[in-house]
């Protein structure tokens, strides 16, 4: 393949990564923005989403399309319920103390991961996509008669991947509308601004916290359900989304939703394109160091008022 | 030589000038009192002098050296000592260890440190509680502990932020005696609400109002000045 | 006061004597375990120095352990350096990495400090994988028996190995006790108790914290280098996040800011994991449950609770 088509392919693959990452990271950003806690178990909620999606579609064996549709609705709700439960039984009891919350969510991380290992097992299992048409894409070349289109071999994308991009975009728009337009979003933003004041105005802050923690986990799970037909479900798959979400949330300006989505696009796209030139490990090293340096040298600049 | 010279100090908080063009000069061996109604900018001004806050504008010289940009710990190391308005000690450590932490930086060995600590505790009459945890002291004793921590550093300038706040009458009398003892070899900047104390110990009084120097003079001058009286109207601190 | 000192001497002396004596009664399997526990406890003590006494919670100490492990391993296996010199190179590597990461990470505090240390450690782990030709990546490499001679003593021999682990543990344990009683240690504790006051007493708090990070890193690296020499294996898994979580877990379990906490924490956790890994592959479940349980019910850890309830004189 020539360089041009190759780059376009990398960009398209990058857009899929970016879409999934934007969903996952906005869950983490939501929790950090409103509750001021860092959820280290976020990647495990992603993993649970994928594993449960496999479980649901497996139960529905005969009708994979219907199974997947059910998984898409039910699995995020299941994961959100579990996260809400964890919030009420653990995080609330330690008063959302930032450092102790990190330690507790590390504990939750291991509990979720290891219980999955005990029940689901160590295998990676695929989920069939509900539809998966291969769409060949055209590229142009300069010939003696001017510019003409042709279909290079290998330059294609599946309809499912396009649907993932669309679905992620739709969900993010919906989330944005909820935050900006609804009464619930108003209460969330009030809690974010000033917890004490929100309490004084009769906003049920505790319930908002539980809900937000559940929503954050639900978004990660939804992203995982979307991605599981492309990537298999495995009990250790939570590590990468966690690290990437961290990076995205930090670059995006901790807690800001539009910033997070923008950063996810940047990271997702450049991940696809950079790995054309560098080894993926080197790309990860550079990204990790870059983010650490950002936190060290531009904490105010990135977070507005110093939030961490 | 003046121990401390501050010229044109300004500190803004979101457009509000908490300290507005303050100039101040404290000569050696003086006890300078800084008074003013609540919110006059006293604590902010002391924050600028000790380096806990950065100046928006102006210049501070300490012992003839420009310290405007010097971080607080270096100012202390140069010979400033600072006691907090809100008691700030090491609660879980013993009284002795509290003072030792203050003294140790300047001592060659632990034996020296012990001697300096014992001396400082004797001067504030806390020798008998040296092994008690600081948290278990009465409030008045904690204030004295703060002063002992200041004294043990043998400072060139001792800044005391409202040292008599919350003290009983007898303790205030003890404190006045202590200042007379300290003034033998130390310059003192005293932020004080209690006018009785100011009248008895200060050589010169600076009156701050709305972040500006309203008046500067001897305690007797201050008492006679009508402007100062007006500034205090409503604040019931002027007894004389 | 004096009686407390006596009790302390008796307790800590007793623990050291017991550790020494254990080797004569333990069956072979547990003999090896206790040697391992003593080395890991050294790592935990390095972590506790920072977490327990300076109140800095790092999520990236594996990078220091790995610096010692690989510093030693590469020097001994690739450069043909002798084991004692390799050990020193390992400790030095840890100190240097600690100085660099400390100088950067200390510009942040609280949650940002935790994330920055995590990120740096992750970068360290990836760097080890990236230079797979030297480090052999995930697979790791074995340190040959001929390279594990320490002044004539063969460190692969179980009894010499036990002595070596015991010596490293003792030296670290006693140096930490001495450090805490030195002016430096007392200043560190003062900074933990009331940082603002320490600044206003003229202490350069950043310098003290940086030195604490360097000591902590060097001690962790000593543990890493010793581990490699005693057990003959160097691998990237020791640089992974899990090995940053372990010292936090050990110290939380044993009791942060207590002298014996790290040993107690490693001991209990080691056997908890040892027993549960006999029953299931998902043995890290124990770690998760213990972490959550500790944050909820016993944030002071075992020795911390003992100190709070019974023995107020414990250091």
UniProtKB/TrEMBL annotation, chain A:
Q: Which chain regions cross the lipid bilayer?
A: 6-30, 37-56, 68-90, 102-121, 160-179, 208-230, 242-269, 276-297
User: Molecular function (GO) terms listed?
Assistant: transmembrane transporter activity
A single Gene Ontology biological process assigned to it is: amino acid transport
Q: Give the main localization category.
A: membrane
The entry's keywords? Amino-acid transport, Cell membrane, Membrane, Transmembrane, Transmembrane helix, Transport
Subcellular localization:
Cell membrane
The protein's topology relative to the membrane is: Multi-pass membrane protein
Q: Which InterPro entries match?
A: ABC_transp_permease, BCAA_transport_permease
**Carries keyword Oxidoreductase?**
no
Superkingdom as given in the UniProt entry? Bacteria
What are its GO cellular component terms? plasma membrane
Keyword Transport, does the record have it? yes
UniProt cross-references to PANTHER family, sorted A to Z: AMINO ACID ABC TRANSPORTER PERMEASE PROTEIN (PTHR11795:SF445), BRANCHED-CHAIN AMINO ACID TRANSPORT SYSTEM PERMEASE PROTEIN LIVH (PTHR11795)
Q: Which family does it belong to?
A: Belongs to the binding-protein-dependent transport system permease family. LivHM subfamily.
Name the UniProt record assigns to this protein:
LIV-I protein H
State the organism of origin.
Shimia marina
Q: Which gene encodes it?
A: livH_7
Automatic annotation (TrEMBL), chain B:
Q: Name one GO cellular component term.
A: plasma membrane
Q: What class of enzyme is it?
A: hydrolase
Q: Which residues cross the membrane?
A: none
Is Nucleotide-binding one of the keywords? yes
Q: What is its EC number?
A: 3.6.3.-
> What Gene Ontology molecular-function terms does this entry list?
ATP binding; ATP hydrolysis activity
In this chain the ABC transporter domain maps to 4-235
Alphabetically sorted, this entry's keywords are: ATP-binding, Hydrolase, Nucleotide-binding, Transport
PROSITE patterns, A to Z:
ABC_TRANSPORTER_2
Q: Which Pfam families does this entry report, sorted A to Z? A: ABC_tran, BCA_ABC_TP_C
Q: What is this protein called?
A: Lipopolysaccharide export system ATP-binding protein LptB
Lineage, broadest ranks: Bacteria, Pseudomonadati, Pseudomonadota, Alphaproteobacteria, Rhodobacterales
Automatic annotation (TrEMBL), chain C:
Q: In Gene Ontology terms, what is one molecular function of this protein? A: branched-chain amino acid transmembrane transporter activity
Q: List the GO cellular component terms.
A: plasma membrane
Keywords, alphabetical: Cell membrane, Membrane, Transmembrane, Transmembrane helix
Give the source's domain of life in one word.
Bacteria
Q: Which CDD domains match?
A: TM_PBP1_LivM_like
Q: Where in the cell is it found?
A: Cell membrane
Q: What is its main location?
A: membrane
Q: Give the protein name, as stated in the record.
A: Leucine/isoleucine/valine transporter permease subunit
| Originating species | Shimia marina
């Amino acid at each position: 393949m020539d360089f041009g088509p190759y780059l376009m392919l990398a960009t398209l693959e990058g857009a899929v990564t970016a879409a999934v990452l934007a969903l996952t990271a906005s869950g983490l950003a939501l929790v950090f923005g409103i509750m001021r806690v860092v959820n280290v178990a976020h990647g495990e909620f992603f993993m649970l989403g994928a594993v449960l999606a496999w479980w649901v579609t497996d139960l529905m064996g005969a009708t994979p399309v219907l199974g997947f549709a059910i998984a898409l609705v039910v699995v995020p709700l299941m994961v959100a319920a579990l996260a809400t439960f964890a919030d009420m039984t653990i995080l609330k009891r330690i008063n959302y103390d930032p450092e102790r919350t990190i330690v507790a969510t590390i504990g939750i991380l291991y509990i979720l991961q290891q219980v999955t290992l005990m029940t689901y097992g160590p295998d990676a299992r695929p989920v069939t996509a509900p539809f998966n048409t291969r769409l060949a894409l055209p590229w142009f070349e300069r010939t003696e008669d001017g510019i003409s289109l042709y279909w290079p071999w290998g330059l294609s994308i599946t309809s499912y991947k396009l649907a993932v991009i669309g679905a992620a975009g739709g969900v993010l728009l919906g989330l944005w509308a909820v935050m900006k337009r609804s009464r619930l979003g108003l209460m969330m933003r009030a809690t974010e601004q000033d917890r004490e004041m929100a309490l004084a105005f009769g906003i049920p802050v505790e319930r908002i916290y539980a809900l937000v923690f559940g929503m954050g986990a639900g978004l990660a799970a939804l992203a995982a359900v979307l991605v599981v037909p492309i990537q298999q479900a495995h009990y250790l798959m939570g590590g990468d989304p966690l690290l990437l979400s961290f990076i995205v949330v930090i670059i995006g300006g901790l807690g800001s939703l539009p910033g997070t989505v923008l950063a996810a696009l940047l990271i997702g796209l450049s991940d696809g394109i950079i790995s054309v030139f560098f080894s993926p490990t080197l790309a990860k090293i550079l990204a990790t160091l870059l983010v650490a340096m950002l936190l060290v040298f531009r904490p105010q600049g990135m977070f507005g008022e110093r939030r961490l | 030589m003046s121990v401390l010279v501050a010229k044109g100090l300004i500190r803004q908080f979101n457009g509000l000038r908490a300290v507005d063009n303050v100039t101040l000069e404290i000569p050696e061996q003086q006890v300078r009192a800084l008074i003013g109604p609540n919110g006059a900018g006293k604590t902010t001004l002391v924050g600028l002098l000790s380096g806990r806050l950065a100046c928006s504008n102006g210049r501070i010289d300490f012992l003839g050296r420009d310290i405007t940009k010097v971080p607080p710990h270096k100012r202390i190391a140069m010979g400033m000592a600072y006691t907090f308005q809100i008691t700030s000690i090491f609660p879980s450590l013993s009284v002795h260890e509290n003072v030792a932490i203050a003294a140790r930086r300047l001592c060659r060995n632990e034996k020296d440190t012990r001697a300096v600590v014992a001396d400082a505790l004797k001067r504030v009459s806390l020798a008998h509680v040296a092994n008690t945890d600081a948290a278990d002291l009465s409030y008045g004793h904690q204030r004295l502990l703060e002063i002992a921590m200041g004294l043990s550093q043998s400072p060139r300038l001792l800044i005391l932020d409202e040292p008599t706040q919350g003290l009983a009458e007898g303790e205030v009398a003890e404190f006045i005696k202590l200042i007379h003892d300290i003034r033998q070899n130390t310059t003192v900047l005293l932020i004080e609400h209690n006018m009785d104390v100011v009248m008895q110990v200060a050589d010169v009084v600076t009156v701050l109002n709305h972040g500006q120097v309203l008046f500067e003079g001897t305690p007797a001058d201050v008492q006679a000045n009508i402007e100062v009286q007006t500034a205090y109207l409503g604040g019931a601190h002027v007894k004389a | 006061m004096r009686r407390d000192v006596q009790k302390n001497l008796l307790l800590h002396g007793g623990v050291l004597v017991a550790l020494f004596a254990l080797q004569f009664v333990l069956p072979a399997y547990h003999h090896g375990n206790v040697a391992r526990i003593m080395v890991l406890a050294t790592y935990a003590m390095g972590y506790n120095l920072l977490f327990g006494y300076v109140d800095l919670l790092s999520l990236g100490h594996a990078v220091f352990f790995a610096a010692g492990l690989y510093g030693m391993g590469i020097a001994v296996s690739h450069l043909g350096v002798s084991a004692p010199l390799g050990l020193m190179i390992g400790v030095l590597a840890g100190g240097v990495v600690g100085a660099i990461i400390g100088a950067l990470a200390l510009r942040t505090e609280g949650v940002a400090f935790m994330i920055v240390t995590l990120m740096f450690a992750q970068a360290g782990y990836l760097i080890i994988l990236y230079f797979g030709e030297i480090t052999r990546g995930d697979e790791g490499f074995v340190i040959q028996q001929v390279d594990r001679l320490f002044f004539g003593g063969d460190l692969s021999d179980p009894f010499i190995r036990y002595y070596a682990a015991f010596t490293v543990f003792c030296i670290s344990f006693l140096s930490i006790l001495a450090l805490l009683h030195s002016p430096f240690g007392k200043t560190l504790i003062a900074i933990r108790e009331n940082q603002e006051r320490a600044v206003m007493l003229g202490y350069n708090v950043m310098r003290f914290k940086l030195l604490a990070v360097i000591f902590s890193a060097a001690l962790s690296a000593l543990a890493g280098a010793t581990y490699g020499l005693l057990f003959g294996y160097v691998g990237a898994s020791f640089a992974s996040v899990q090995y940053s979580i372990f010292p936090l877990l050990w110290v939380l379990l044993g009791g942060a800011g207590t002298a014996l906490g790290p040993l107690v924490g490693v001991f209990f956790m080691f056997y908890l994991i040892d027993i549960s890994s006999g029953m299931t592959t998902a043995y890290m479940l124990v770690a998760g449950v213990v972490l959550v349980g500790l944050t909820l019910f016993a944030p002071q850890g075992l020795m911390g609770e003992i100190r709070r309830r019974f023995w107020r004189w414990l250091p």
